[in-house]
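<instruction>
Derive structure tokens from the sequence
<entry> Chain with its tokenised backbone below:
===
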Amino acid sequence: MSELFDAVDALVASRSPLPPPAERKRLRAAHGLTIDEVATALKVRRATVSGWESGKTEPRPPERDAYARLLKQLAELYPAPADATVPPRADATVPVQDAAPAATSTGTPAPAEAPAPSAGPAPQAAAMTVSENTRTSPAPAAAAAPAPLPGARKAPPAAPAATGGPRFDNGPLAVIDVDTDGKTLAYCTGGLVLDVPAKSLPALVDWTLEEAKLGQPKLSGPGKPADPLLVLTEPALKRYGLPAALGEEERTAGRLPEGHKVVKQLTRADWRLTKRGFGPWARIYRPAQGSERACVQLCIPAWDALDTRHWGDAGQLPPAELARVLGVYASRVMTPRGSTAVTGLELMTALHPPTRASGPDETGRRRSQHNPGSLGKDPVDCAPCEAPDGHPVLADLPRFHVRGPGEKLFEEAYDWARPLTDAECLRRNLVGLDVNMAFAAGANGLTVGLGAPTHVRNPAFDPKLPGSWLVDLSHVDLSRVKTGKEWVELDAALLPSPFTPKGDRPEGPAWYATPTVAYAQELGYEVRPLEAHVRYENGRYLDGWYNRLRDAYLATMADLGVDADLPPENFLAAMDGCRARDPELAIVVSAVKATVKGGLGKLRERPRGEGWRPGEPWRALSRPTWRPDIRAAVISRTRINFHRKIVKHAAFTGQYPVAILSDCVVYAADGESPLDVLPYREGRPLPGGFRLGVNPGLVKWEGTQSVLWGEGVREQFEAPELNLARYIKDGTVTAQDNGE
């Protein structure tokens, strides 16, 4: 009989009444308890208690009985005020039609150098729905972030919920996991959790497309909605018959063998895999029927799908937190399509689809036609000077021929350094400044070629015409240049040349992208190209791409407490430790920045194994987005933007950089702060020079080391021109600098 009584007691405990979430929090705080103390006592995670107090989750037995007991005792000690309004119980049923719509938050206006972000979606609690086969409940909330600085925004507790209509009610993606009870769950954005009935991978794909309501609306009129993304945790891999890790041969191939049992299951169910097979980012599809797509993408963190260089420890996060990180990224950038580099390239295409529907003809039928402003659906050949070594257009060159500047376009980021002067050695510190989203800023407003190049002999230079120009810029003398309408005298020996990545003065004719040649004119010097490959079909192809990534970056930084309109001192204070306020959102910031650099790098993707030999085409050449000329133009403009600010700074302050690496510059200074380097008068920066701020193109503090440190590491490695910008962040030098 005692066993029956125990069973009855357990049944009653499983439905122990709980006060509403706000009251739970009040009672805990009234007794001076922290969330961590409650979590420790109940042997649960901190985020679990936070979820109970926010109403995003409800406790389950056996923790529910203990939690109810705690709250009951606290309620006896601290009764609610008589005039308090008690909201409805958090575990009451919520009708589907009464679910609140998605909320929005408005971005902060940005300075003129980078336009303000558009309004973006704000996080919200998930609506609760009930069906016969699918249970939904809120996921555990992420740990609360520390209080932000004055004027800072509070970090969101979850990824934004979808706003794409009923078809995408549950957001763009789900993290599939198996709990301790053996139940398969789908953790969605907005804190939603779905029961997954599928027992096999083909059934999981069917469920995703037919019931899960996952996906993302298209980003442009002629585009297509994003396919659902499923992220499989290690327990989910085991549930669906997949290995927890790829073997050595599988890692080398980047996929499972075609004979694997799960691949055979998909084949028997008439599902197909793309050419890259079943790897860390697998796409499972059936051929489209008309406009209807049937495609699901998988992301497998245990197989290194989330590169730690860009996603940090995202792959190790619990399912709810991982859904939040990927959900914020998806809502602000796009649903990941692979690595951050792949996603950066896919974002370009999503914003400028290659085709669109024509107007109806006499029969009312519409046809596919070229979408103006896009790169089209067919690849175009690059000019010989734009081709990387081994490209088919260079097949006639001798096998070991090394192309010089007169044969090869070499637009790359800065890697330049010089010895300190005697005066600089007497200063105490070296201060590093880093340009925010430098390459994104270089893409903003840039006119690039859309079609194939046209070869022209002895052309007149046109700064508005994108292309590659063979021109001699060795006569440009940095000791006397124009800034605006005035000529200024500078110490050219202390400045890098703007025309070469290493900062060396060119020695004769060389190939340059349009922004580089235009800057020579801007400095007050005549240019006479010998020949050019120009693109008469052109446009500002990257503007929408820049705007999307800028908005994502600024919105996420604002969530971390760094707004776009902070004064210099407040900006430096807000940046100090901002990543620690919400480490998950800090991951999103890193991923957004990697999307910029990786997407631009993909424009000139090199062969990746595949048995390739020099002179043969490789897979990337078949893409319309294989455009080394666009990459070169962005890098050219980024480097020129950097040099322009350096010249302004030198002309106004007499200070010259001692090292530059990509988007970081180092100056000698007596103080430790960027404010000891940057000239501010009454809170206003030097016009056209460096300016502190979070917007793309503005600068932040990279790090400060002593001059003695700099001279010491150069002596240690016997390298007087060691690039100190590479190590200024934390001062750690692990090996001799080889420029790589």
User: Anything to note?
Assistant: The chain has a mean pLDDT of 86.
